[in-house]
Amino acid sequence: MGGKESAPTVSEMDLVKDIRRGRAQQRAKIPLSRTLFDRINDIVKRHALGEPFLANLASFSDDTLGEYLAVYWMRPKDQWESPLFSLSSEAEYRVTTAIIDIINNPYLHFVTSPEEILLCRSLFRRDPALAPEKLSHYHFATLLMELGGPTGQT
């Protein structure tokens, strides 16, 4: 008791430095990722989607798919990135959350336009195991035509 504390040895100093270095690496910056809400909300805002779009989405079926694919089947995939954070009005928020609730499948993470939102459920029903590379590089109408068009027959 009451003894002097000894100075740290070289190996103890190395240990302290290693611990500090390890903690600094753990605190490394992790890039922010975009959420599904931010992606869909950006489409809603850019295309001024509202209640009429939700009504169209709710009534969209395989019966209307044929005429839709005739128009959009060779569209290129839009290349863009949604903002990291979304600020939206109450109406935009309501439309965005309704779209997410209505579609409710993983392909929604790859949509870049209102057309792809409309086609998302049909594409997922036809092939729920498409590779992410295909979903991010090809318009959903093109993928539906590849799967056999509106009837799903190849």
Report on the structure:
- Helix content is 57%, strand content 0%.
- The longest helix is centred in the N-terminal third of the chain and has 17 residues, at 10-26.
- The protein has one domain (36-151).
- The mean pLDDT is 84.
- It has 154 residues and is mostly helical.
- The N and C termini lie far apart (87 Å).
- The protein is elongated.
- It has eight helices and no strands.
- It has helices spanning 10-26, 36-46, 51-59, 62-72, 90-103, 114-126, 132-137, 140-146.
| Secondary structural class | mainly alpha
- Tally of DSSP β-strands: 0
User: Average pLDDT, to the nearest integer?
Assistant: 84
Bin the helical content: 55-70%
- What is the oligomer described by this structure? single chain
Unreliable spans: none
Q: What kind of sheet is the major sheet?
A: none
The global form is elongated
The string of secondary-structure elements, in order, is HHHHHHHH
End-to-end Cα distance, whole Å, is 87 Å
Strand content: under 5%
Number of helices: 8
The value of Rg in angstroms is 25 Å
Number of domains: 1
